[in-house]
Design a protein that fits this description.
The longest helix has 17 residues, at 225-241. The two termini are 31 Å apart. This protein has helices at 17-27, 55-66, 82-95, 120-127, 138-145, 152-163, 207-220, 225-241, 257-263; strands at 3-11, 31-43, 46-52, 73-76, 100-102, 133-134, 169-173, 181-186, 191-196. It has 9 helices and 9 strands.
């Protein structure tokens, strides 16, 4: 079995963050481990509070995992402060994992800022160059690239700018644009588009976390980046289509839909 490590924040409602990452790893047959960077008080309606974990504890968590267990892929999510980013970068440089998927979480779906604005430069300078793949959505890509994005052509321009910052490849997620859900992958030479029908549902809590963790899982199992993204896009589309109406706001995607269906749990 392959092993994947998520370095991210905890979501008390279980739909996003490390909870979504671990569910996604399990759904892909990958053993999941976690380094918690922050504890959030949140539910389907939004984030109400955040407690950041001390950077020395973040680094100790990283060391505890890598010194005992083989890590086939790392997924990075919420890293809200400069100190947090520096601790993660120090750990990654020490152990040099071969696969790092960076989901540059900046703002929650409800509008809560999960990345201190002062930490954006640290994210760009310390973590993006270490990434095998960076997976920003439109607002995140705009903030990192410093441009407005209104169409797929703008997405390609942003992908080039982010690629110049040092990652091996860039995936711009187009879920915030109108029309079909188009994601664009750039490998430094070619662009590849992944298109899916836009689904009309409010149950989209944790989509970004889930997609990046699915990609990390596929990479851990040996897929190339383009194939890993293609499979992950198919997985998240099904998870959104069968999202769970839990809570009073944006419910979570269904991480185990296909497994539940095969097991006969769905009627």
């Amino acid at each position: 079995m392959k092993n994947a490590l998520t370095i991210a924040g905890s979501d008390s409602s279980g739909g996003a963050g490390i909870q979504a990452d671990l569910k996604t790893f399990s759904a892909h047959g990958v053993f999941g481990m976690s380094v918690i960077t922050a504890v959030t008080a949140q539910n389907t309606q939004g984030v109400s509070a955040v407690q950041d974990i001390l950077p020395e504890i973040i680094l100790r968590q990283i060391e505890a995992v890598f010194e005992d267990i083989r890590v086939d892929a790392v997924k990075i999510g919420m890293a809200s402060r400069i100190e947090t980013i520096e601790a993660i970068a120090e750990g990654l440089k020490k152990y040099n994992p071969q696969i790092v998927v960076l989901d540059p979480v900046m703002v929650s779906k409800s509008g809560y800022h999960l990345l201190d604005p002062s930490a954006k430069d640290a994210l760009i300078e310390r973590l993006i160059p270490l990434a095998t793949l960076v997976t920003p959505n439109i607002p995140e890509a705009e903030a990192i690239a410093g441009i407005g994005i209104r169409n797929p052509q703008d997405m390609e321009i942003a992908a080039r700018k982010i690629f110049s910052m040092g990652p091996r490849q860039v995936l711009i997620k187009g879920g915030h644009l109108d029309g079909a859900a188009i994601d664009i992958l750039f490998d430094g030479t070619r662009f590849k588009r992944f298109t899916a029908q836009r689904l009309q549902t409010q149950n989209t809590h944790g989509t970004g976390c889930t997609l990046s963790s699915a990609i990390a899982s596929n990479l851990a199992k040996g897929d190339g980046i383009a194939l890993a993204v293609e499979k992950a896009k198919s997985y998240i589309t099904a998870a959104i289509a069968h999202g769970l109406s839990i809570g009073k706001g944006a419910g979570p995607v269904h991480h185990f839909y296909e497994l539940y269906q095969k097991a006969g749990y769905l009627q």
